[in-house]
Amino acid sequence: MEGIFYKIFLKSVAEKEKQLAILIDPDKFNNSEIDTFLKKIPKETTHLFVGGSTVANGETEETVKALKAETKLPIFLFPGNHSQISDLADALLFLTLLSGRNAEYLIGQQIKSISKLKNSPLEIISTGYILIDGGKNSSVSKVTNTEPLPQENIEIIVHTALAGQFVGAKLIYLEAGSGAKFPVKQEIICEVKKAINIPLIVGGGIKTDNQKQAAYNSGADMVVMGTAFENAP
Ligand SMILES: CC(C)=CCC/C(C)=C/CC/C(C)=C/CC/C(C)=C/COP(=O)(O)OP(=O)(O)O
Ligand SMILES: O=P(O)(O)OC[C@@H](O)CO
Ligand SMILES: [Mg+2]
């Protein structure tokens, strides 16, 4: 059964309303500066994502709690591992790293999360997560000990996304890695969007309005921006 946050997402896609998620990394976020942070993010922000490749135990919950007190924006967990789960959030992107061949990130972490999730009110959204080369060795690549897919091989990226849909993913997330030198290129976004019929999220290395718009124009339904708002004054 589809939960409310996924239904809202599908409705936005049907109405061609683009979504913008701002990523908050609990490790780098100062909970006492939430006010300033919420003022500096774009007005069109639709979601807050909370997660990181490596986050100290308990920090996710602290950050979600602090955010919930200050904003009504939906909070989606975007976890690097099973310890980054808090029932205080609204939804959980239940990621599986389809670009890699590390069983731990294809199904291991997911199994480890079940004792926490089996009685959780969180909306769980199955997400096919595809790491693509962004010109820099990414934290995701280091932590998972997997290689990103090269941007040149569009066919394998499209096939990976469609395989994700066929095994039941409700979202596909094309990731160039946080702080990528270059984002996922437009042609890849176009081809993936044409192939799948579930919503498409694109993130990694998107810093400017132009880059964001380019991703939307190519078919991204949601853009994720993190680094751009991490160090901004
Ligand atoms: C479903 C559950 C319980 C866990 C999923 C576990 C999986 C498959 C994770 C995918 C691989 C992974 C490590 C994803 C992390 C995604 C993320 C939150 C990236 C944010 O950026 P950082 O990688 O923290 O970048 P910085 O190094 O710049 O902080
Ligand atoms: O930090 P940036 O480069 O915006 O990347 C956001 C997100 O897609 C990383 O997982
Ligand atoms: Mg991080």
From TrEMBL:
A Pfam cross-reference name: PcrB
Entry keywords, A to Z: Lipid biosynthesis, Lipid metabolism, Magnesium, Metal-binding, Phospholipid biosynthesis, Phospholipid metabolism, Transferase
Binding-site residues, Mg(2+): 25, 53
Residues binding sn-glycerol 1-phosphate: 173-179, 204-205, 226-227
UniProt xrefs under InterPro entries: GGGP/HepGP_synthase_I, GGGP/HepGP_synthase_sf, GGGP_HepGP_synthase, GGGP_synth
Named cofactor requirement(s): Mg(2+)
Catalytic activity: sn-glycerol 1-phosphate + (2E,6E,10E)-geranylgeranyl diphosphate = sn-3-O-(geranylgeranyl)glycerol 1-phosphate + diphosphate
UniProt feature coiled coil, ranges: none
Keyword Transport on entry: no
Organism domain of life: Bacteria
E.C. number: 2.5.1.41
Recorded family membership: Belongs to the GGGP/HepGP synthase family. Group II subfamily.
Function according to Swiss-Prot or TrEMBL: Prenyltransferase that catalyzes the transfer of the geranylgeranyl moiety of geranylgeranyl diphosphate (GGPP) to the C3 hydroxyl of sn-glycerol-1-phosphate (G1P).
Protein name in the entry: Geranylgeranylglyceryl phosphate synthase
